[in-house]
## 1
Amino acid sequence: MLRTFTCLFFAATATFAADSLRQATPWASGVGLSDRIADHPEDWPLLMKHFAYVTPENCMKPAATQPSAGVWRLEGPDRFVEFARSKDLKVVGHCLVWAKDDRTPAWFYQDGAKPASKEVLLARMKEHIDKMVGRYRGRIATWDVVNEALADGGGYLRDSGWTRACGEEFIAKAFEYAHAADPDALLIYNDYNNELDGKREQMLKLLASLRARGAPVHAVGLQGHYEIDRIPYEALEKTLIALREAKLKVVVSELDIDVIPRGRWWADNGSHHEEMSKINPYANGCPPEILARQAEQYAKLFKLFQKYPDVIARVSFWNLHDGQSWLNKFPWQRVNYPLLFDRQGQPKPAFTAVMKELTTPTSK
Ligand code: 9MR
């Protein structure tokens, strides 16, 4: 009798865990979501079954929240936060400063006809951060404070209105202001390709410098926008080890695996754009062998993550299912399949492979 009960108990536990990502991961399970999630009840069951943390895809960005000086658009973020509260989901605020000129509303940098001074720019940044972090204090426990400040292709920081006026000080200040506005919030530095050799060293230099200034950085976001057959497992592992040594937590903040390689889009001064914008190989469905390869590569990624449960605090996907992925539109229009769930919200081979990896004790 007891044995039967025990078996049933374990069978039930295993079935439940093998079925739900948020039950199976040793870290928090998250997802970036369309800002209109509150209007889409058809997405709620999938969302709540697998994810505990939600990041609004666009509505909390500076360009959306304060498009011109003192003009605030907070209905979208308010609805998002209220929706999350009603479903008992935790919100990742994204993002307070996006250190790219095309992502920062131009007014931030201008003071009449001349460029804003460091003092003016920092005062504007403080006002923005105070408003956002203060408004959601107690309701948003995690913030992407600074996004994408590291330069691509070597060097150190990305050139932007922020660095031109403030050097690297704006990054430390952003963290100080966010911490002052909510001392309980977990504060993240978020970037892409920061696990790669080269950009990793730039990041470690930045983190050391922030630490020396006493800036309250609690975790690093590795966005994890990968491409099939080009997942940088080794570099990623080196980065996880380096961040463990630096005593920083890691969040994989925007995970996906594009099945249509896109790297060449940025090569050779953009001269391949015209040719590439015609590439749409899977418009009528993704071949099973591609989905199988993607599944294998996702599983290998999760196998690696599982070696670092003390480092990885959260893994968030960027979008709920293939039909909602930003990669259907960026950098050109195509039908893409980067996530664990298909356009009907059904589990793909990648989901099965990841769950198998997470629930098979021998693979750890
Ligand atoms: O997925 C987002 C897309 O809908 C927006 O048009 C774009 C510009 O705001 O940002 C995308 O999300 C980005 C995220 O905010 C930061 N990391 C890279 C993400 C993909 O570009």
## 2
Amino acid sequence: MADTSDPIKDFEKWKKKYNLKKARVKRERSQKKKPEWQVERENIARLVSKYGDIDSKEVIKFSDFPISKKTLLALQECQYRQPTEIQKQTIGFALQGKDVLGAAKTGSGKTLAFLIPVLECLYRQQWSSVDGLGALIISPTRELAYQTFEVLRKVGKNHDFSAGLIIGGKELKGESEKIHRTNIVICTPGRLLQHMDETAAFHASDLRMLVLDEADRILDMGFADTLNAIVENLPAGRQTLLFSATQTKSVKDLARLSLKEPEYVWVHEKAKFSTPATLEQSYVVCELHDKVNMLFSFIRSHLKKKIMVFFACCKEVQYLFRIFCRLRPGIPVLALHGKQQQMKRVEVYDDFLRKKNAVLFATDIAARGLDFPAVNWVLQYDCPEDADTYIHRVGRTARYKEGGEALLLLLPSEETGMIAQLQEKKVPVNKIQVNPEKLQNVQQKLEAFLAQEQEQKERAQRCFVSYLRSVYLMKNKGVFDVFKLPLHEYALSLGLAVAPRVRFLNKAEAQRAEKKPEEDEELSSFKAQLRGDGPRQEESEDDSEDDDDDDDGDDEDRAEAPPVDVDDDDLRDLDFLTLKRKDVFNTEEAHQAQVDDSSKTKPQKVTKFKEAKKILKRNFKVNTKVSFTEEGQAMQVWPPVQRSAASQDAVQEQDEEDDVSGINVEKAKERLRREDEEFDKREYSRKIKAKHREKRLKAKAARREASKQRGDKSEDRDEDDEDEVVAYLANSGEEEFDPSTLPDPDRHRDNSDDEDEDEPAKRSYSSSEEDEAPVRKRKKARQQQEEEHAVLDTGLSLAEDEQLVLQLLSGRT
Ligand code: ADP
Ligand code: MG
């Protein structure tokens, strides 16, 4: 056998191979030696170089975006493969560093549209704990902040950033030192501002990205002052992303955020409807006194569903929740509202998240952003404030490709106005009717419960008054007319024997009857002179009464009705709701009803003298401009209010005077004098307080400066008494975030009332409904403090004191 092999050739071949291998090993070795940060830098440079080529139309998978492996991997694990439309259209702009205004229907995936850019932005800059706060995400409610935090924990798990949830509290002392090292903060506006003001080590001067989720809500009047104060603390060079289903385009709003040539992305701008296509929406016109029966019958016919029911106010939720638990409808009933303590809110939230069949009674704190899986129905027990609120409420169902149904209960007086608004906002809603035979009457049961328990009766009364107040305070008077409500029947339907006395309503009604369409100048100026306390002031009296009712510690609050009689199937709703596909927006009947009503309330002819007398007697507020705080309290804007405690006495006095005919000029003079004195006293106390505050701040700054020079951190630590939840994204693994570690901001606020002397007098830290109760408590405590200051300690010398008091008194005598 001839040997065909050529040893020289073989050797050459072998040598070539050897050299190649040697070179590869060398290359690999040299690569291995590259420090990790260098590899990371190269990866980042590669990604960034692709930013300019992003074409949202060509993106199909998340991996088509130049985003980090760390993010991609986590998205994959969460089963997020293909970006939704809003994600496709905004992520590119956000990566390129542009300001973005993103609008897309509810449930369309806006959360990831900002979380991915947040992660990439910090990754790109290799952000670490020493860099402090890099991104800030602001949510209107605690629940939404908590939910966003959970999503961030999942999609950011491979990154090394720390993330904090700042929704208040001071229980986790040990965490307090971490706060200034937190890279991504998710927060509600009020708590964030409090941190900015009070936590020495917490600053936002290096902030790279600001995100407002539910931006239109955060930019609206309720949060205006808080947000403006927050923005003042942020660097101008940051990037800003705004997202909402109902986006603001108002130049004024955007100017407040100093956006730089923002990209406006409105995914569904050309869509026929503004609500998800998979959402079926209907409305029923029903009398106020039929609503409880309607709700009960609805729940009884949907026992195997997951339902959210929206109410106008907390007191309604509190009362009806308890009553429905007692009625044992055959499905768990839960309640979520702003007067609950934070722990309870988290508990209810988690409970409803997990449950397959349940009914959640909620106020509008649950209207925005919350992503409960598989909610089948959204029932709006009370008419929403406006079409945007409607859109957000119904958006709790039919999320991300899922189906859902929504039912709106409208009073006859609300139909015309509300339906017109919905039509204008492109909301398709069908009018349906309820099968009267299926309507179950629970009034007698309610009466029996109230007869047994005084506490329930009081709750029913508060529910009654609060509901009327909420209707009265609604701005859109074309939809909400408290005078059209059948009060007696409504009270009976709640199980009450008689309608509670609603003082503000009596006064408002009297005022309305007095109001003449045209009044001459002479009379207006006379009225202006007789400026008095209007009915809305009394509102706030009622409000403060409400505050005393803190029954949230009650375990019953989360009690559930044990399921009974779950034999009915869901076909029941076909019986209960009879679909009547007639002209949805045909509102002729309702319009007619309104015309009839208005003719009844035609003002009676009265003489000028008589009218003037009545005005003086009833202490009407005339020629005034009233605006409303987020807590629903009316505040007189014009003319400036000079009245306080003295004016309340005046109301009482005038009630007493009511029987006396004629004008008691002497008494009126005396009252005016007292009011003026009261006003001056408060002004005096305010000035003293401001002076004190200035002194304290100076002292504090000096202390801080001194400790800095000493290199001593203890001063900071002492003042660093705000503790929050801080989680580290990396290595958080699959382990569940324990909500019990969430602090209890309500408790904190109660405590802080005693300690918090440094609080700026005028700043409203929180104006959302979620923080309603604690804010009022703080206000009360602050008032008390002010009074004490005025009496006990002015901070001035005795001589100065005397001089001031004499000055004040001399002006009065
Ligand atoms: P929005 O903020 O627009 O109301 P969310 O961000 O809460 O909507 O998302 C709605 C639902 O859609 C969530 O359950 C979320 O997990 C899911 N989702 C979002 N993006 C995607 C995606 N790309 N793929 C699959 N599901 C997604
Ligand atoms: Mg959202």
